[in-house]
Please model this.
Amino acid sequence: MKPAISVEGISKEYVIGNETIFGQSFREMVVGSLKSPFRKFRRLSERDARQDRFWALKDVSFDVQPGEIVGVIGRNGAGKSTLLKILSRITTPTEGQITYRGRLASLLEVGTGFHPELTGRENIFLNGAILGMTQNEIGRKLDEIVDFAGIAKFLDTPVKRFSSGMYVRLAFAVAAHLDPEILVVDEVLAVGDIAFQIKCLGKMRDVAGDGRTVLMVSHNMGTISSFCSRGIVLNNGNVSYSGTTEKAIEIYALDISGSIKKDISNLPFNGPGSVKPIEVQIKHSHGVGNSMVSGEDNEIVFELNAESNMDNVEMAFGVYDQLQRRIGIADSAAKRKSFQLYKGNNTVKCKIKKLSLGPGKYYLNISIRRGFELLYGVERCKEIEVYFGTSYKDEILPNRGPLIFDHEWSKAGKVD
Model:
């Protein structure tokens, strides 16, 4: 069976910081040339040499088989969005080619392909026509699309008046119901509410079950693990791995762990500093580094340096969001635990069971005390990226808040 998508040596180059003189008036150009003709000539001749060129993608190749659900993962800036835009024919590659075998529909941004002045109904027919469908084909699907999107009341309203949620519901309904052989989806589904996200994943499973192909980008590793049959990891514009979903998630975890680095030894701190952390690492099932996995056990390892032997040392750390709001805290004193430190390097560990943080970036504030005496205190000493672990299989957990409660549901027997 021939692949539904064949990507062969795709590369995309952008020029950064390109200087141009086209924004100048004629008078400014003439005066500037008279003042420094040789400098102007040198600038024009050397302009290409000074341009910074950036390869968003470099020699990317892979095949996607009919009926396959492939997850594309990687940290921010890895090239995922550029790849999807090229696949969706929004932008052209600098090098390489793509072969499609089937009709492709894509959902990359809210309202992609919609005309703001047209109504929801008119945009459905417009998108169908772009996909190559006849008016009769679109008409047969119209009721199903409207019912799925839940916008029947506003169907004849210009979409420029839609909320972002209404936009994405209609855009996904159109893309999924107009029978594309290939569906490309970015993580735009996070805009919808949880009920709609569940409907979307169910629909994509139906699409793949019919022998059609789904290519999706997500930072939700639970969704990737439970939904995708294969994973592709992008790193700095290159395919670092293409294979099993489990291995792809492991490589992604190690990648983002290595991408967040911060020297904590030179940070400003409070207290005498008689004990200082020299390194903070996080361990979990996917590796060691600076990432944390939501829903799984995570161990934070503090390497401390003490100026002398000390008894009854207590440690605490707080987890803060990017607005410096405290989300949670772990304090050894609350567990009636203190440590005996020896002069030199010491290791102290804290295990967090089934981390309940949602995905995102967080920071650690650390304090080290002995009784009421603060020995060391520092803010934002560690940046952490949290992502969903595989323990959240078959669940859609949008970023509605920082905490995800460890919970179970049950049903009692019938009450007479």
